[in-house]
Amino acid sequence: MVMFILQALFLIAAAFIIGAISGNIFRRLSPKKPSVADSSTRAADARLASLSTLVAVNDDVKKSAVEAAAMIPPAEPVPQRSIKTAQRSPSRKPEPQPEIRNPRQNDGNRPTRLKNARKGKPDKLSEIDGIGTVIESKLLALGIFHYDQIAGWTVDQADWVSLEIGFTGRAVRENWVKQAGALAKSAKPKTAKKTAK
């Protein structure tokens, strides 16, 4: 019985392969006939060509759209009372919005921040590996402008900043403090040479 099944499977496979090869040869040798897809494509192209000529001939559609727009009444004026009552209301100064902060943050771990960069020019914080232009802009918005500020952070302060900018643990994981310390040391001798001249 097993031998019969194996012979039957072999014969079916052989018949499939012979049929596929003979069909391929027959298709190549037979003359080309236009396919249904080609004829339908030509018919669609002909319909599109006739449609564009119809649009060019029928300018009535454009005229009726202009006439319909002319029939729309103009907007009604706003009553003068509402404007005057709005002007009479006392002008209030907008209340300063509280700083939106992450509720999980402990302000005791907030690092020292500056209102503006020293001498009006912040350090290029993107030189620290792991700080790109997006993170640099977020650090500048937090008041962190210089390498020595980052170099003075504790682990808790680095975590605070990471959470504040939306990249939890990144400052510690990528050693921003150590990198900033090296950059701050390399920046100081340049300023000392300038003042000596």
Give me a quick take on this structure.
The chain has nine helices and no strands. It has helices at 2-29, 36-57, 60-71, 80-88, 133-142, 147-151, 155-165, 170-173, 176-196.
Question: Explain this structure to me?
Answer:
The protein has 197 residues and is mostly helical. Among the domains are: 38-72, no CATH class; 109-191, no CATH class. It has helices at 2-29, 36-57, 60-71, 80-88, 133-142, 147-151, 155-165, 170-173, 176-196. The longest helix is centred in the N-terminal third of the chain and has 28 residues, at 2-29.
By DSSP, the count of extended strands is: 0
Largest sheet: none
Distance, first to last CA: 104 Å
Radius of gyration: 39 Å
Global morphology: flat
Structural class: mainly alpha
Average pLDDT across residues? 75
For this entry, what is the oligomeric state of its chains?
single chain
Element-by-element helix/strand order: HHHHHHHHH
Share of helix, binned = 55-70%
What's the tally of helices?
A: 9
Strand content: under 5%
Give unreliable regions as ranges. Answer: none
